[in-house]
Write a structure and sequence with these properties.
Blueprint: E1 7-11, H1 15-26, E2 30-35, H2 49-52, H3 54-65, E3 80-84, H4 85-88, E4 97-100, H5 106-119, E5 125-128, H6 135-139, H7 144-148, E6 150-155, E7 164-169, H8 175-187, E8 192-195, H9 204-221, H10 226-232, H11 245-251, H12 253-266, H13 271-277, H14 283-290, E9 303-309, E10 315-320, E11 327-329, H15 346-354, H16 359-377, H17 386-397, H18 403-410, H19 412-422, H20 428-435, E12 442-445, E13 448-453, E14 458-461, E15 481-482, E16 486-492, E17 495-500, H21 509-525, E18 529-533, H22 545-553, H23 557-576, E19 581-590, H24 592-599, E20 602-612, H25 626-637, H26 645-656, H27 664-670, E21 678-681, H28 687-699, E22 711-713, H29 715-731, H30 737-750, E23 759-761, H31 763-778, H32 781-793
Parallel strand pairs: 1-2, 1-4, 2-3, 4-5, 5-6, 7-8, 17-18, 18-19, 19-20, 20-21
Antiparallel strand pairs: 6-7, 9-10, 10-11, 12-13, 13-14, 15-16, 16-17, 22-23
């Protein structure tokens, strides 16, 4: 049976329920969000529908206001209708997918599913978001049709941002239902779908609990402070900066304790869990739980934010001393192991880290020995394939590398040696794998990433990657073009891909040269077209600010003029060349990267693309055609007899306030993206593949755009309105005096300069104004101060 999802019911409006409801609203589905009728209503209030629905209404309102935002755009909340279990339960009969997200109690969930079974329509899908209660227990006693269409679908919090989507069938789940969820989670929800077995904690929480418990045990064993542990378990090893103890505070120490307790109580035949079950809880954990110091939500946990301020005006953070159980100002440990962060190659970095003799290296060596041993011994108990564990930990916990990927970095033999040193058990299938002459869990052959399959004792393609274009798998082929900052790949079917490879993917001359050379080659040799994209965390952070700042400080204005003109002409070349150019983005799409994207024929933007022309923050204006493009797009919205000023003001505010979209969807509102030209892709791993398809579609009857000569600008009339707005902002102290100087340059370009009447101008005319303004600002000491401050502090200066 084919399932079509038009309406979803979410039962339970807590943090997870509201977040899940918002994520379905993000993809345009109608959502029914239900919760209990509050217990404390008066007799009169019990008659009021608003009061009866207040649990769900209040929870949704809280979710919408929360940060990070659960919705791509706030008005997407209109897709969500709230109600209550008593009055509105029968409405689930109109829903195609019903998701239970109530409290983690088996009896309450069973009561909910009894009602679901009564009111659902035949064939509708029913799932539980339980984080560990056995799915088979939740399915017991339900109708045959219910059981066939029931399984676990476990989102991680926050649902919009954490990509892991665990699918947990029970014995009675129809295979077609399982296949549907694996596909739907990937394509429509943008998730990394992972098939799990119905075991306590599934995959993410099972490995996560072991990892967290071991971190605490090693903290005590090696007599380390929480600041020291966090210093070595964050970005140094490819994990979020929340590291270990800051993460506990973020998640909630009570929540972590409940999840750990559940896994400990319900797991059997697990050598590690059995070894720690009898151990006494660390005194500091018991203390925090007794005091109800649960972390961020209670104001203190392992860390405590105080009202005190340092010399820079920042809140002073205190850290818990694990011995005295008292708080003291948090320190920033300078540890020898920190130097390993200078090693860009993660494989070499990990070898260095676990091979050191210092205390911190020994800590991490023992930690990783335990992690990789535990993970290997869970195959095939919790998952049939090792890649499922890696996928779960990367996308559920924001680890850059999963356990087996890390083991490959360390080396198979070294990892086995580490495990044996700690007295842990090496999984039998790993020993067999080594004896058979294999030395890695993953390898690339024929453009495919392969994993070692312990069941067949050989390598197979990672199935979760079959529909994605992963540029790393193409590196065994000779690139079409390669320099220090970019590589041009052959994607097949006559499509090239320009991949940025500079630090933070910052745009420099080498990237510009690679794009230009790729266009020349495509035009000369008859290629179908070009994708500009990469698989990095961020598409690009923008232009190489340090390079521009150094040239300005050395007053190399002739060279700067040529640099700016070169970037402008590169973007015009992208726009007017004889082959289609499509961008594929994710993460930051800032400054010059935004300008490249705006000049492409089309864009495939991962939903989590944060797009903006941010130059005014460093005292500059968008000088690569970005200001020109917003002027052009404003002009295209002008209609004869219409009031043009509001459209102009919108474009001005977008640049002058350095607006950055919080999603690709929001970028349409700012004019960075255009309906019909640009598209949102939910799954960031699909954007390059979709961009390639768009190139092929456009190439069939492609006609290169001409340079525009018909851009309407308002001249002095527009300038008068914008200058008035700037002065009002200054009087209200919303902007500094120098912000006003930069804003006047933006206004001048958008209005076409001091023209006496509304006039039609060309793209080059506006580019010349851009370049003149950019150079003028680079000659101003206040801009140089802003550039220098931003480079040193990674935040803007308001001088």
């Amino acid at each position: 049976m084919q399932h079509r999802i038009k309406k979803v019911a979410v039962l339970g409006s807590g943090v997870m329920g509201s977040g899940i409801a918002c994520h379905f609203a993000n993809i345009g589905l109608d959502v029914l969000l239900l919760d209990i009728v509050p217990f404390n209503l008066s007799d009169e209030e019990k008659k009021d529908p608003v009061k009866r629905n207040s649990q769900a209404v209040s929870a949704l309102a809280t979710a919408i206001k929360s940060k990070p935002a659960p919705l791509f755009k706030k008005d997407f909340a209109s897709h969500i209708t709230t109600g209550n279990f008593d009055d509105d339960f029968e409405k689930i009969g109109d829903c195609d997918w019903i998701i239970e997200v109530v409290i983690e109690r088996l009896d309450i969930k069973q009561q909910i599913f009894e009602k679901v079974d009564k009111y659902r329509k035949a064939g509708s899908l029913v799932t539980s978001n339980t984080s560990g209660i056995p799915i088979k227990m939740l399915a017991e006693g339900r109708s045959e049709d219910f059981q066939k269409h029931f399984c676990g679908t476990h989102f991680f919090n926050p649902p919009r941002y954490l990509r892991l989507f665990e699918v947990i069938p029970h014995e009675g789940t129809d295979q077609g239902v399982v296949d549907f969820f694996m596909h739907y989670g990937d394509v429509y929800l943008g998730k990394q779908t992972v098939l799990c077995k119905d075991t306590p904690g599934f995959i993410g929480n099972r490995i996560g609990v072991m990892s967290g418990v071991q971190m605490m045990d090693l903290t005590v064993k090696y007599d380390m402070t929480i600041e020291e542990v966090d210093a070595i378990t964050g970005s140094l090893i490819g994990r979020p900066n929340t590291a270990t103890y800051r993460l506990q505070d973020l998640v909630g120490i009570d929540t972590s304790a409940k999840v750990s307790g559940f896994v400990m109580e319900n797991v059997s035949d697990d050598e590690y869990i059995e070894s720690v079950k009898g151990k006494k809880q660390p005194e500091f954990m018991a203390h925090l739980l007794d005091q109800k110091w649960f972390g961020n939500k209670s104001g203190q946990g392992f860390y405590k934010k105080t009202k005190e301020r340092d010399e820079k005006g920042k809140s002073i953070i205190h850290a818990l001393n694990l011995k005295t159980l008292e708080y003291a100002p948090a320190t920033r440990p300078r540890l020898p192991i920190g130097k390993a962060k200078m090693i860009d190659d993660m494989g070499q970095r990990m070898k260095t880290i676990v091979g050191g003799d210092d205390r911190e290296s020994k800590f991490l060596r023992e930690y990783y020995a335990g992690l990789i041993a535990y993970s290997a011994n869970r195959v095939p108990e919790i998952a049939d394939d090792l890649y499922s564990i890696d996928d779960a930990m990367r996308t559920g916990y924001f680890w850059e590398y999963g356990p087996f990927e890390t083991w490959d970095q360390i080396g198979l033999a070294e990892g086995i040696k580490m495990i044996e040193e700690t007295g842990s058990k090496v999984a039998g299938w790993v020993s067999e794998m080594q004896k058979a002459g294999h030395d890695s869990f993953y390898k690339v052959e024929g453009g495919k990433r392969l994993y070692y399959d312990q069941a067949s004792k050989g390598y197979k393609p990672v199935p979760s990657l079959e529909n994605y274009i992963i540029l790393d798998t193409l590196r065994e082929n000779a690139p079409i073009i390669k320099n220090d900052s970019a590589t041009v790949h052959d994607l097949g079917d006559g499509v090239m891909c320009v991949e940025f490879t500079s630090k933070s993917n910052s745009i420099d001359d080498a990237i510009g040269q690679a794009i230009s050379d790729a266009i020349d080659k495509a035009e000369e040799e008859g290629w179908a077209g070009i994708v500009i994209g990469n698989n990095a965390k961020n598409f690009t952070v923008g232009a190489n600010l340090m390079n521009v700042g150094m040239m300005a400080m050395q007053q190399q204005f002739t060279e700067l003029d040529a640099l700016i003109d070169g970037f402008q002409q590169l973007n015009m070349k992208i726009k007017t060349c004889k082959v289609p150019v499509v961008v594929a983005t994710q993460g930051y799409v800032f400054g010059g990267g935004c300008e490249i994207a705006m000049h492409a024929d089309a864009g495939v933007y991962a939903a989590e693309s944060y797009i903006g022309l941010v130059e005014v923050g460093v005292g500059l204006i968008p000088g690569g055609g970005g200001t020109k493009e917003l002027a052009l797009r404003a002009s295209d919205k002008f209609f004869e007899g219409d009031v043009m000023m509001p459209t102009l003001i919108d474009a001005f505010q977008t640049i002058a306030t350095a607006k950055v979209s919080t999603s690709a969807s929001e970028a349409f509102d700012y004019g960075y993206l255009i309906e019909g030209k640009d598209f949102v892709e939910m799954n960031l791993q699909r954007n390059i593949g979709e961009a390639k398809r768009k190139v092929l579609e456009l190439s069939r009857e492609y006609v290169a755009p001409s340079i525009r000569e018909d851009i309407t600008v308002l001249g002095r009339a527009g300038l008068a309105a914008l200058y008035t707005a700037i002065n009002e902002f200054k009087l209200g102290k919303y902007i500094s005096e120098y912000d006003g100087v930069v804003a006047r340059h933006v206004a001048n370009i958008l209005c076409g300069g001091e023209l006496t009447q509304t006039t039609l101008v060309s793209e080059q005319y506006l580019l010349d104004l851009e370049r003149e303004a950019f150079l003028s600002l680079l000659g101003n000491q206040k801009t140089l101060e802003r550039i220098q401050y931003t480079l040193q502090n990674n935040k803007p200066l308001r001088n």
